[in-house]
Amino acid sequence: MGSSRWFGITAKLLRSSCQKNTLFDNFLHTTPVRLKTTVKNLKGRKTSSQQWLRRQLNDPYVVQSRLQQWRCRSAFKLMEIDDKNHIFRQGDVVIDCGAHPGSWSQVAVQRVNATGEDSEAEVGFVIGIDMAQTAPLSGAQIITGDFTLPDVQQKISKILMGKQASVVLSDMAPRACGIKSLDHEIIVDLARTALTFSHTVLKQGGHFVCKLWDGNETKALEELMKTYFHTVKRMVPNASRKESKELYLLGIGYSKKMDKS
Ligand SMILES: C[S@@+](CC[C@H](N)C(=O)[O-])C[C@H]1O[C@@H](n2cnc3c(N)ncnc32)[C@H](O)[C@@H]1O
């Protein structure tokens, strides 16, 4: 079967399986169908944009995320984190900070049985928060807003209605300005904000995952996490781009008793 026909069928499948056009547009934005068209016009594009397109086309995680209907390739990072550390259980409540376009929330929804697909298991719940408008996702409640603002955090607490979360995720990242030390400081601040918020919502034994771009303050954050979690690990998932300084800190087994704040 020719590749264009094959991609056409994939796009058709995606269209029929997505309830909302906005969601389908998210997929279409990165489908090979559109990339193929765009690639024809490479000559008029900036070198950086040509490089981006070529990288997307040659990235197996991008290809697989389209085929498996994840909203972006980041899904593979969280799946690997969970496969190796078992952070999710069916019935869990998960807070996903920096959720757009939604692939981590998709993974969480699936792994905590938030849509009740497994009728014999407990049904979980996911709250996704992002400054960017995120397409609706069955099994998740999406909040659009800046997570660092108190009123956004209050909205999350309100949705929880006194329930505690089993997992807090932060894949929040600023738009990188290119000054590595500054980008590092900003992403560490976002992770710290998520960690501080965790104290108000995370249950005993719960887990915390945050994304960082490695730098001077990584060690200090890791040490801080050790005062709250039974085990703290660094992880660089296989899907993290080789040229990136991205890493994830995992706090496994939250203990309020260890909280020295
Ligand atoms: C790497 S993307 C997240 C990808 C997401 N985990 C997924 O799998 O679809 C980082 C996100 O963090 C969000 N972000 C950055 N700062 C934020 C803030 N203060 N509040 C909420 N979201 C924020 C950005 O808007 C961006 O969508």
Automatic annotation (TrEMBL):
GO terms for molecular function: rRNA (uridine-2'-O-)-methyltransferase activity. Belongs to the class I-like SAM-binding methyltransferase superfamily. RNA methyltransferase RlmE family. The active site is at 211 (proton acceptor). InterPro entries: RNA_methyltr_RlmE, RNA_MeTrfase_FtsJ_dom, rRNA-MeTfrase_E, SAM-dependent_MTases_sf. GO terms for cellular component: mitochondrion. Pfam families: FtsJ. Keywords: Methyltransferase, rRNA processing, S-adenosyl-L-methionine, Transferase. Residues 70-253 form the Ribosomal RNA methyltransferase FtsJ domain. It comes from Lingula anatina (Brachiopod). This is rRNA methyltransferase 2, mitochondrial.
